[in-house]
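Run log // design_07
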């Protein structure tokens, strides 16, 4: 088999070949000229020495920088980014090549340092978060687990890594739909878990990421707070009704034990019974309002033309003209009855506020970021307490039930939207914004 010459030998032979014609002419002139043998041999040795010496010098001049670049690249491939090359001049081809290699070394060093710091941060975050994280390879073997995962499975990572998902009791979590909520008992705890899955590649091989977050504690805390708010509101409303009823019943009982003027007694009894009846009716209205809030049905979606809907609801208000600011022609899928109630409540609140100051009310709609935005704007005194706007049964109106805005927000969220209220910027009044998906 024919063996190819190496690069350094090719450079040497090409250099020798480049000087061979001149050496051949010199030898012919020397040996066929009128020179003594001593001169001929002396000059022959000198010419050959210079020829061979320059040829090997050229090879060295070409090969040494290539060897230097090779050493630099070898250091980079081994992860040693501290080695730097030096070139005599930076404006020639060799200098530019060495400069680019040095620049590549600095860039790779910075990238590796950033990757190391990011990896360390990721490990620290995974270790500290109270969410169980597991990573399985394509064979279903556990390759990564954080501290929360160790606590969930009640075993250290050294005993878990390499085990199959079925062995650690997570095979069902790798199947089915995701995300979803599951009720599962693990060795380290039982309850409701939010299950999420993902995929990534490591070393060119597919891996599966499993994340389990405990919902039980958050649900229990939220449920406790909800019960506290409910008991506080119910206690307040019921006591406000029962206290005067009890007081008036005791007064009427004492009155019946005396013998006053029959006419006066009848009038007092009538007033007392009116108070009892009024407070009883208020308590009944409160319980009916609560039942209405708790029994909101899911929306029945049908096509709804926004412009006609807004104009129709605005025309129902008779206490104050409501100005309709026309928007684009658009239709949405919504429950018309529920949205009627929502917009009626918002306009009623705006009119109530504007009647206090003699202002006006405006309603309009527009497209914004792929959503439909309906806004109601008034010139009233504004919101004094924005923190309790959506607290059930909280109201500043003497005859209010405190469920209007809560019911409106429930309707908006049931349609996949949001409801917000805020004071207007730079002027008095309030603006309510309803955002619904298109």
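design_07 sequence
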């Amino acid at each position: 088999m024919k063996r190819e010459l190496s690069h350094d030998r090719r450079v040497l032979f090409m250099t020798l070949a480049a000087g061979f014609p001149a050496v051949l002419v010199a030898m012919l002139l020397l040996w066929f000229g009128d020179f003594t043998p001593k001169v001929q041999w002396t000059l022959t040795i000198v010419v050959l020495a210079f020829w061979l010496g320059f040829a090997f010098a050229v090879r060295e001049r070409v090969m040494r920088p290539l060897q230097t670049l090779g050493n630099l690249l070898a250091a980079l491939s081994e992860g040693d980014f501290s080695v730097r090359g030096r070139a005599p001049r930076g404006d020639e081809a060799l200098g530019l090549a060495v400069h680019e290699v040095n620049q590549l070394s600095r860039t790779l060093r910075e990238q590796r340092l950033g990757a190391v710091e990011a990896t360390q941060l990721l490990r620290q975050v995974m270790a500290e978060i109270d969410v169980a994280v597991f990573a399985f390879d394509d064979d279903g073997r556990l390759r990564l687990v954080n501290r929360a995962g160790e606590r969930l499975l009640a075993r250290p990572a050294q005993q878990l890594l390499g085990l199959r998902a079925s062995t650690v009791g997570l095979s069902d979590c790798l199947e089915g739909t995701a995300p979803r909520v599951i009720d599962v008992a693990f060795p380290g705890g039982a309850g409701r878990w939010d299950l999420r899955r993902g995929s990534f590649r490591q070393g060119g091989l597919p891996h599966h990421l499993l994340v389990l977050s405990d919902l039980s504690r958050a649900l229990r805390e939220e449920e406790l707070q909800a019960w506290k708010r409910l008991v506080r509101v119910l206690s307040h409303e019921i006591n406000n009704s029962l206290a005067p009823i009890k007081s008036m019943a005791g007064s009427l009982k004492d009155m019946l034990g005396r013998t006053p003027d029959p006419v006066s007694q009848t009038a007092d009894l009538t007033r007392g019974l009116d108070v009892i009846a009024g407070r009883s009716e208020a308590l009944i209205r409160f319980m009916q309002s609560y039942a209405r809030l708790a029994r909101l049905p899911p929306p029945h979606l049908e096509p709804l033309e926004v412009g006609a809907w807004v104009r129709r609801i605005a025309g129902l208000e008779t206490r104050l003209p409501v100005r309709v600011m026309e928007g684009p022609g658009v239709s949405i899928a919504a429950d018309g009855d529920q949205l009627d109630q929502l917009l009626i409540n918002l306009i009623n609140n705006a009119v109530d506020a504007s009647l206090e100051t003699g202002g006006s009310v405006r309603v309009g709609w527009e497209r914004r970021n792929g959503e439909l935005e309906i806004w109601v704007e008034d010139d009233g005194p504004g919101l004094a307490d924005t923190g309790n706007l959506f607290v059930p049964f909280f109201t500043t109106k003497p005859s209010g039930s405190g469920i209007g805005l809560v019911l409106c927000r429930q309707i908006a969220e049931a349609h996949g939207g949001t409801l917000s209220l805020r004071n207007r910027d730079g002027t008095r009044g309030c603006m309510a914004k309803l955002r619904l998906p298109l």
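Residues 37-77 form the longest helix (41 residues).
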